[in-house]
Design goal:
The protein is α/β, with parallel strands linked by helices. 28% of the residues lie in helices and 23% in strands. Bound molecules: iron/sulfur cluster (2 copies).
């Protein structure tokens, strides 16, 4: 089965135990106002124009004849500063698994493995399941997820993982809808299942100032988490810079 991935990051040190290779799935059903991966939101491949260093020469806007450039309205090959790229590449699950397993020895000897991230891996559940099955027994498999999916999809993917990082952002349903674009009902149901599943996991909360890090919200999330592992992540100030590159507006 084919899926779309916007980055494969080797030697990742912050996406789980040991040295890891992180696979960034394209597409997310949420629209968190603070999202630090705007190039992962749209499920399709999209144009990404780095902003720093543009000479304003206009060369990339001139019509070209390369078939691969036509869907994006820019030439992908002419920029003298190499600023024009596409985020999102189609992979067969088997092709991606073979590529990831090239580093198997290094990952395993460091106590690390593969982490599925995004975007939202659950949005391409069939592709994620096939990839996780191909990696099964060969390398440690972790996932970073918003937890937003119907119960069966969540269980199908999560039960194939050796470790789960799941976000809990806002406990109040209205605040969740306001700042992420979706209700947290499915997320809370899936969190309840994860807590009882026996699958090793850690909940994560990004400390967005004035929105997520309020004492009321953190106290309510603490009640949901109970005795399970919980990480509070510092805010990422670098996020706004990437929005222009994909033609999106930073909302905060
Ligand atoms: S769930 Fe993650 S990837 Fe999706 S919009 Fe929120 S921060 Fe971005
Ligand atoms: S070709 Fe490169 S440097 Fe020239 S306008 Fe396009 S992005 Fe900027």
């Amino acid at each position: 089965m084919k899926g779309i991935v916007f980055d494969v990051k080797e030697f990742a040190l912050n996406d789980g135990a040991g040295i890891r290779t992180t696979v960034f799935f394209k597409g997310c059903p949420l629209r968190c106002a603070w999202c630090h991966n705007p190039e992962g939101l749209d499920p399709k491949p999209e144009l990404y124009v780095k902003q720093n260093g543009c000479l304003e020469c206009g060369l990339c806007r001139k019509p070209c004849k390369h078939p691969e450039c036509q869907p994006f309205g820019r030439c992908l090959h002419i920029c003298p500063k190499n600023l024009v790229t596409v985020k999102g590449r189609e992979w067969e699950a088997s092709e991606l698994a073979d590529d990831l397993l090239r580093q198997r020895e290094l990952l395993t000897s460091s106590g690390g493995g593969i982490t599925l991230s995004g975007g939202e891996p659950l949005l391409q559940a069939g592709f994620a399941c096939e990839l996780l099955d191909l990696l099964n027994g060969k390398v440690h498999r972790a996932i970073e997820t918003s937890g937003f999916a119907d119960a069966q999809t969540f269980r199908d993917v999560i039960s194939r993982c050796d470790f789960v990082y799941m976000d809990l952002k806002l406990a109040d349903p209205e605040a969740h809808r306001k700042w992420t674009g979706v209700s947290n009902e499915k997320i809370l149901e899936n969190a309840a299942w994860l807590k009882k599943s026996g699958i090793p996991h850690t909940f994560r909360t990004p400390l967005i100032p004035g929105i997520v890090d309020t004492p009321e919200n953190l106290a309510a999330i603490a009640r949901i988490v109970g005795d399970d592992a919980w990480e509070q992540l510092p805010n990422n100030d670098l996020a706004p810079a990437k929005y222009k590159s994909v033609g999106r507006e930073w909302r905060l």
